[in-house]
## 1
Amino acid sequence: MKKILFYSDTEDFGGHEIMSVKIANYLSTLKKYEVEFLYRNKNISNQLNNRIKTYFNNYKDSTPFPFVKNLNLFKILKIKKNISFINPDIIIVCQGNIELSLKGLIASKILGKLTVSYIPYADNFKRNKSYFATLRDFINKYYYSLPDYFLTPNEFQKKNILFQSKNNNISIIINPIESISDNKIIFNKYKKISLGIIGRVLFNPKNHLITLSIAKKLLSENIDFEFHIIGIGKDLKKFRSIVIKNKLHDRFVFHGWLEGEDKDKIISKNVDIVLIPSRVETGIPLVVYDALKNNKKFLITDFKEIKEYKLPDNFLIDINDVESIVQKIISLNNLKSVDDYIDFKNNLYTKNSVKNFKLQIEQAFRIISCGQ
């Protein structure tokens, strides 16, 4: 029996952490693996099943500029000692990008353990106009050389990893959709358009501030609307303050962090269109699954990362053109035909089924285990 340790030191809890939990939970049901999890965010521990032994990580991800701040030798050696005590055969380092959970990646390599990077986003920082992008991309080439294997959610990210690393030991594990709703969908036109923003409140990747420009444009068009914000994050307090400063507080409802049935209830009752104006995504985000599960229309940034999913044009937006976003919102509110929506939904459910998810996990870890 192989002992597998999942390592995470992020204080965030979003799509990647949810997927790490799902993979760990399924692996723990397979008799050939003993699964343990070294975590930082307590939401991870709360969602792991009782087969998985857990350990709290005393050392958190160091941000901003984790490519430098995570190179803390004292903390790396402490983490190395903790991992050595657990003594796993394989370590899965849950990295949002190559700079995150970096202390665990380095500690694993120092120990000579079979090291797997579970990384959903492998694009370079120059493309996203990040601070010190050229320097970071240069340094990160070394970090990409450390893992023995990579796990990633789609073909686009696999190509990104191959651009960053000569290591072609890469397995795809999709983000699964766990249930499908009845296809008897009816799209209605509403006098008051309710827009939902779901997920971590982080200005840079999630682009929450664009809602202010959208709100002002909708007001100028005399269109009644309301934003429902579902989620928490480090920029939530500042976001509330900016909304109030712009005298839009009567147009925004903040629901906090919701999960499961509580989240679905709010989406089903209060949201007409789920808006996903992110600057960065790894592929189809789990927020789209929330929309589909509740038979809600959605608008998402037209990323290269989602081209393989062939979304209908009326569900795609250009975040650099607020006026066009508002027109898409108005058009989608008026949309009655459900054919394109149902076709996309059924195709995604087929491709990203739970069955395929489980098969990919089994195949990936069979390959990884043989490489030890």
## 2
Amino acid sequence: MAYGFTLTVDATASTLGSTEIAIKPFSMPTAAIDGGATSVLNGGGNLKAYTDSTKTTQLPVHVIKFVTGVTPDILWRTRLPSVAVGSTIYVEADEVQTTQPAASAVYGSQAVWQDAFTALMLTESSGTLFDSSPNGRDATPVNLGAGDYVTSGLFGNGVYFDNNNNYLTLGTQTLPHDLSFLAVFNPTTYRGNAPDYNDTLLSAGIDNNVNGAIQVNFTDGGTSIRYGGNSGIAGSAPALAQDNTIGITRDGTGDTGIVSVNGVSVTAAGKAYNDITNEVTIGKLQSQNAGATYAYHPHGTLSMLVIWDKTVSAAQHEYISGNLLATTSWGTVGTWADAGGGGGFQAAWVRRPSIIIGA
């Protein structure tokens, strides 16, 4: 008989659209991760998740790391159709399955990120940083040395920006008109708040005075999004020497923008803009050469970065931040008398016009 348990996720003030949920070891019972007889397999190969105890609807799963035993090291993600008070994930250590589905399979990892423009988990220890979405928008490192692939990120691995000349590029892209962004970043220092000095996390277009260009910047004075000639929508500054969630929303349809730092959001009027096709850079102002004074290279560790072609509300930014930064059980773990073996009809995922958030 397979072992099962439930996780009733943290409640929200209002029902949210379909949401990517990050699950860490403290949100799982010991018996599921201790390497014993009822544990999920080391590596997470037999981990399955559902929306109900009858296993009618299987959820996609993205196992990022799954080391069981006395000191488990675990991070996996699934995607709930919606999140509301009482939303529950039914999880089992399946007695038949031994490996996770292929990334492109119905319940594979790409289905978790199916509405992302790009989803960079930054788990690599060298070379290209791979996109977990179905789109293949991998990040190419520029001037990253071996020591810049670090293991000190929020979830383990990450990329260290040296405030000098290293960065990532997505190559030439047309960013979504309605765009949302999330990064987990631990700044070591700020560049300063001198005129035009910023730490740039995302950049596309020549500069912030060109329609369609976008910058996501922060300084010791705050965090901002600039686009379409807009002088900036400003939120609070990320704290030094700790992991921060930095989220933005560029709503071209509603003409608004949101800046959210650690779940605290500022919403303001944006400015109309035209879409452009240009290089997209992470960790450098796109228009400047690496190492230039105004290249705005940040200094610190990036643990993940996701871009969606959807708008994310302030309430959703808050929920994402709470999920990612939680250091104790995120939700309530319960028992499930799993009958074992899978089975039953498993509804396939259908792309729907709901908001996809989280990481």
## 3
Amino acid sequence: MKFHTPFLVAAITIFPATASYADVTPQEVWDHAQLYGKTMGQTLNARLEQDGDTLIVHDVTIKMPGLSNDFMMFEGSVPKIILKQLDDGKVEMTTPEPIAYSFAISGNPKVGMEPVDILSSMTIDNTIIVSGSAGDFAYEMLPGTMTYVTQKQIKDGIAVVPEQIVTALGVHGLMTYSIEGDNIATVMDVQADAVTAVSNGTTESMTMETTYKAAPLKVTANFTTSASALDEPLGYLKTLNGDASYSIDNLTAEMTTGAAAQMMHMVAETQGTSIGANIANGSFNYFGSSIQTEVVLDGSAIPFPQLDFGIGNAEFAVTMPFLASDDPETFGLKLALENLRLPEIAWMMIVPTGQMAHD
């Protein structure tokens, strides 16, 4: 929600912005949104209404034809996007109503997979200020809150899709998009002051609750793709190259799961986590690390009063192709643990002979 002073309201009324003085117009911002959607494999369609210097984009439909088939289908809808021309040649962008997403999986009865409809919504109360020109946009995201909710789906007493509520506070940052020839470049630098994720898959017979808290969360990305390939099936993926990463200074997690007589409770904390990804020539490299991780387990499902263990440093990496190819592609997997601390009973189970030094 935004609050304007009476002076600002009067100034906008008396001195309305006009497209002739604008560095970027609301129509150009909407046109660019459609182009950017293509770089993500999405097609956007909507009904436009011009109200003075404000362009109102109604009933936006989002589809991903490259990922939709007989097995699964993705759709999204945005009730309204408001693009308001400002006096300084910039455009104010707001999304006053939740964005809805639907991911349908048809299932396969032959292997016992039932159809599932995953329904989610996203609320964005950030104001975004768009500047630049038709081929070079900058989106400044002013501090605000983002909330993502997934509805619980229960079938035959099992939560096939748990309820998930992700809340990001103080989200702010900058995203830039530039077009040079056939090259479309995207750069992102966004931060959230704090993120909370709550998952609830509890049913009448089973408890399954998890809470994650992270602060702060930093996300960076730098990608390029080909403009001429966007209309081809999966063309955006075939020409996608770049890298992305996110880091968390402090991450805590708490999980409770089990039935009435067999419950398990876990509390974990790590002092630093970083995740990165690199995409090039149809291959995907995913890697990450964490430091100073501590975990405590207890509950009636554990045959001991309490188990606690720690990892000084953990690293992982996965390399694999994500597009079909006639030629052999590289697959790699790495997992490294340093300064692993386990209770003695755990070492006895891993190495019953006691021949592995673990001091």
